[in-house]
Every structure is written in structure tokens, then in C-alpha cells.
Amino acid sequence: MDLSANGVFDVRERFAAGAQYIDGTLCVGTSGRPHPVVAPATGETVYSYDLAGPGDVDAAVAAAAWALPGWAGATPGERSDAMHRFAGVLAGRAAEFAYAESLQCGKPLRLTTEFDVPGTVDNTAFFAGAARHLEGRAAGEYSGDHTSYVRREPVGVVSSITPWNYPLQMAAWKVLPAIAAGNTIVLKPAELTPLTSLMFAEAATEAGIPAGVVNVVAGAGKEAGEHLVGHPDVAMTSFTGSTAVGRRVAEIATGTVKRLHLELGGKAPFVVFDDADLEAAVHGAVAGALINTGQDCTAATRAYVQRPLYDAFVAGVADLFSGIRVGDPFDADTDLGPLVSHAQRDRVAGFVGRARSYATVVTGGDAPASPGAFYRPTLVTGAAQDSEIVQSEVFGPVLVVLPFDSDDEGLALANDTPYGLAASAWTRDVFRAGRATREIKAGCVWVNDHIPIISEMPHGGYRASGYGKDMSAYSLEEYTQVKHVMYDNTAVARKSWHRTVFGGR
Ligand code: ADP
């Protein structure tokens, strides 16, 4: 089967008009600085574009501000209809999106076809429905003399900054709740991977969402990103990326009093109790650690395995890791594609190289001979809990396994990093599972699985993993502001409470 046969297009031709999408039109960035889009599987430059400069950011924010009253004033039904059409356009272009995402990220086409793209279509359909379900919670005569009710209103022009690991899904997670709630948006994708964000914005226009509602500025983080976050006409920033950049974004947003939503790094624990289904845990760990070549902030990175199962678990994972087929993302047999870039591959190799001095590399730990940014699935044991490979986000196909004895110890180790995005507990005992779900400090705890996400449920972190939720009705609410409206019901000119201000008269 040749999965690459459908949806292939010439990137240079398709984006000949430029890699900025402002006010419903593709245009060329004005920074004067070109940036390549490199296929990480081959190292080839497949496209080069001029990065957005501050002037492009200003133009995109102006387009979003201009489109805001019309879009915010559309009925929920009108927004919902347009977004349903948007889902239809995306579904019709599924093969093109899968191709472009695989090309720029190096993801196996199997993954983009079965996960990234259908997930995005489903998110779009979900938020099309959710657009009609925004409501203020209360209406009532709480004071006795007034009727109060709550309006949920759009925040305004939203800015979003997204990373390179899931460019299409991240664009969807930021754009969809924002526009469903009546906001307009300027999205800045990562420099390495702008293509599917641009295609996503184009599809919105094609579906009849007015020009200016969804804009994309493909620019550098420091230049375009900081200008966008600090822009006085932007009311809110949502960001997914590293904790270090999130801190910088938060500083700028705080300085200009913006609403902020941060989805930062993770270091997800994978806790296997001694009564777990070993085969399920081994398969779950391999899939959870290697999805998207480990470049997933919820990826299973630290497996804690209770002593009786430890040796068998390590052997099982090592066996599966050795059989993983690393290679061409467009080959239907490929399990694991390259890292997103050679720089990211070298970063991962650096973590593993340093770990060799204090831990054991059981499988992998090297790159196959190839011009692509590949790295083999890597299993590490014998690392101390406070070591770099256990504590830091590697963002590559690397799983560390550590043993534990008591349940108390396993749960304490699971919580022992600054992060708190996701975790899983593996057990057949409902009480152990219940305890793990209560005590693990993370925005998501899976039981007997690791990774699945769904449009209806929130995704977001605890602690250094940030705050704010993507997907679900929770994210929709975050892109609104709550207004209390209070009507006097008495028609009395001299109200009794006035005497607290000017008594007697
Ligand atoms: P990654 O390591 O995954 O690239 P980053 O946090 O560095 O994660 O990047 C995520 C996004 O943040 C990218 O779109 C990048 O361009 C942007 N970015 C990087 N630095 C800044 C910054 N100083 N201000 C705003 N955005 C930034």
C-alpha cells in the first residue's frame, strides 16, 4: 500500500504567495529574514519563507480587531454552522493535511492519518456543537430587589503561540474554542512547522468563516512572538511550549494585563503496580513512550514498576523497542519517524550520552546511519530519581524505568518532578487505582492506558506544566469573560441601602 499516493502537493507551489495568512489572504512576511521548512526525514529544505516581522503582526492583529464585532455579534447558530462546514472542509482535505504534517514534522503517515488529522476534524465538529452551548450559569433574585444574570462574552482578539510537535492539533486546540466563543485570533506557529497552521486557516476561510477571524503569522519567537503577546490590542494569550518560554510569555502578558493560558512541559510517570496486567503495561509503555517519536508532553517518560514485575517489564519493553521499525514516514511499515530536527535529535542524544555516566542504556542510545534526524527507541535503567534523565523533559523516544517497593513509594516518586501534566496507573485493583487517581498531581490520570485524548475532556497541567485547559467545554469557557448584569426590580428612587452612604436624607 502506498499511503503517500493521496494528498501529495508541491509545497513551493502551494505557498508561492507566502507563509503568512492575514485577513483571509496568504502573503509574504516582511522581516527580511528567510526561514527553511526542512523535511526531518531527509534533511532536505522543501520550502523557504520570509518570517513575519512586527509589521505583519500589527496587520494581523488589526485584521482580527476589525473582524471581531461581526464575528462576536453572529449568533451561536451562525458560528456553529460555519464551524460545521469547517469540519467538512478539513475532512475533505484529510490526505493533504496528513501529507503536509508528515512532511514538515517527520511523523509517520500512519500517525497523521489516524491520529493528528481525524483528531482535528473531531475537535472542529465538537466546538461547532459547543458554540451553541455557552451559557451563564445563574439567573435569579439573589438580593431580593434585583434580578441578576450572567453573560459570557468573548474576550476579544486572542493571540496563540504553538510548538512544532503537533502543529495542526495545537492550532486546532487554540483556534477552535476561541472562535466558537466569538473571539478572533492571531496564531503564531513554530518556525519549523508553519504549513498545516496556514492550511487550517485557509480551510476556515473556505468554509465561510469571515476573513480576519483566523490569522496566522509565521515568525520567530523572540521577534513576532513577543510582539504579539505584548500587543496592546490583544486581550488574551494562549501558549503551548517549553516552561522556559512560557515564563517569558507570562512576564510579557502580565506586564500588559492579559488573560493567560499556558500549557507547558511534562514528564509523565507511568506507575505499574504488582497486580497489573504485565502485557498490557508493556505494550502501553512502548506506545506511550514512542508516540510522535516521544515528542509529546504527555508521553510516558518515567516508568515506575513495582519490584515483582520490574525485570519482566524491562525485558518486555526492550524486546518491543528492538523490533520498532525506524524509517521513512511515508512508508506504511514505519513505526517511528525522525525527531523534528537535527538539533532536537542532538539534544536527545545529549541527554542519553550524559546518562551513560550514571545509568544503563539497555536498548537504543544511537542514531541509525541516515541523513534524517532519526534516533532509536532508547530504554534506560539504573538512573537515580534525582538524575537529569528522570527529572528533565527529554522530548524524544526515551523511556526510563525505575523500581519501587511500597505503593506509598511509587506514588511519591510519580509526584517527584516539578511537572504535572499527565500520568498513568496500571493495576487491576480498584482501590489502588482510585488512590493513584486522587494522589497523583497531574491534569490527567489514565488507568490502564496512557495517551488517549478526546475532544469532550480537558487537557492541561498542574504545577510547572502550566494552567488553563485545551479541548472540552472548560477551554470554551476560558475564551470568554463573565459579566454580571444586575437589574433593579423595585423602581424605588430612594433605596434602603442609600442610607449607608447618605443617612437620613
Ligand atoms: P520548543 O522547544 O518546543 O520549540 P518553545 O517553547 O521554544 O518550544 O517554542 C514554542 C513556541 O514558542 C514556538 O512557536 C516559538 O517560536 C515560540 N517562542 C519561542 N521563544 C519565544 C518568546 N521569547 N516569546 C514568544 N514566543 C516564543
- Give the helix proportion (percent range): 25-40%
- State the end-to-end CA separation: 88 Å
Overall mean pLDDT: 96
Quaternary structure:
single chain
* Rg result: 25 Å
Estimate the strand proportion.
15-25%
User: Any low-confidence stretches, pLDDT <50, length ≥5?
Assistant: none
**Tally of contiguous helical segments:** 17
Main sheet summary: 7 strands, mixed
- The count of strands amounts to 20
Spatial ordering of strands, largest sheet: 14-15-16-13-12-17-18
Structure description:
There is one protein chain. A 7-stranded mixed sheet has the order 14-15-16-13-12-17-18, sandwiched between helices. A 6-stranded mixed sheet has the order 9-8-7-10-11-19, sandwiched between helices. It has 17 helices and 20 strands. The protein has helices spanning 11-14, 54-73, 76-92, 94-105, 109-130, 167-180, 195-206, 221-230, 243-255, 278-290, 307-323, 342-355, 388-391, 407-414, 430-439, 472-478, 499-502; strands at 20-22, 25-27, 34-39, 44-50, 139-140, 146-154, 157-161, 184-188, 214-216, 236-240, 259-263, 268-272, 300-306, 360-363, 378-381, 398-404, 422-426, 444-447, 466-467, 480-488. Helix content is 40%, strand content 20%. The chain is α/β, with parallel strands linked by helices. Residues 161-164, 188, 190-191, 221-222, 225-226, 229, 241-242, 245, 248-249 line the site of adenosine-5'-diphosphate (ADP). Adenosine-5'-diphosphate binds next to helix 8 and helix 9.
Condensed summary:
The protein has 505 residues and is α/β, with parallel strands linked by helices.
